[in-house]
Design goal:
single chain, Maf protein, 6-stranded mixed beta sheet, 6 strands, 19% strand, globular, alpha/beta, 177 residues
């Protein structure tokens, strides 16, 4: 089985590999490859709908790019969202897995953003560069991610995204759907 991940980010490919490894249905024969494609949404998706749409667009774009190349397309998108009745802005993540006929969705953890970071994102900055600036690091999004920084390393970005992908694999690993 060949699985294309709609991103060139190695964290997203690794998250998919970990999720697939936990799904015995794919065995050791699954090959997970990065396949950079556009999300079709803003660089900084805002809200669950836009973030989920970006994930779905990526999964579909993988399959559309070369219909014979992959059995499954995986899209992973991180964004920020508000929750009704709650103050603040939250980091959110969505994954979509599709085979051209069916699609599954899963979400990763939602993490509250500190007020100073949320204010900058609300003012139009992307979360990744804001995290780089606040932490004084480079490429936080390709390493621990905001999830790792916000949890003191207890959940890194790869594990957070793995959870989203594992949820999106549901229709492909169980008969419950």
């Amino acid at each position: 089985m060949r699985i294309g991940v709609g991103s060139g980010n190695p964290v997203k490919r690794e998250a998919t590999e970990r999720a697939v490894a936990g799904a015995g249905d794919f065995g050791d024969e699954a090959v997970v490859e990065a396949c950079p494609v556009p999300s079709g949404v803003a660089e900084q998706p805002f809200g669950h709908d836009e973030t989920r749409t970006g994930a779905m667009n990526r999964a579909n774009a993988v399959l559309d790019k070369d219909p014979e190349a992959y059995d499954l397309g995986v899209g992973i998108e991180g964004g920020v969202a508000e929750y009704e009745g709650r103050d603040g802005l939250f980091l959110v993540m969505w994954a979509a897995v599709g085979d051209g006929e069916r699609v599954g969705f899963g979400a990763g953890p939602s993490l509250a953003l500190p007020d100073v970071i949320a204010a900058r994102v609300r003012d139009g900055e992307e979360l990744g560069p804001v995290m780089d600036d606040v932490l004084g690091e480079s490429d936080v999004a390709k390493n621990q991610g905001a999830a790792g920084a916000l949890t003191g390393g207890r959940v890194d970005r790869t594990d957070a995204l793995r959870t989203a992908v594992a949820g999106a694999l549901g229709p492909f690993v169980t008969d419950l759907y």
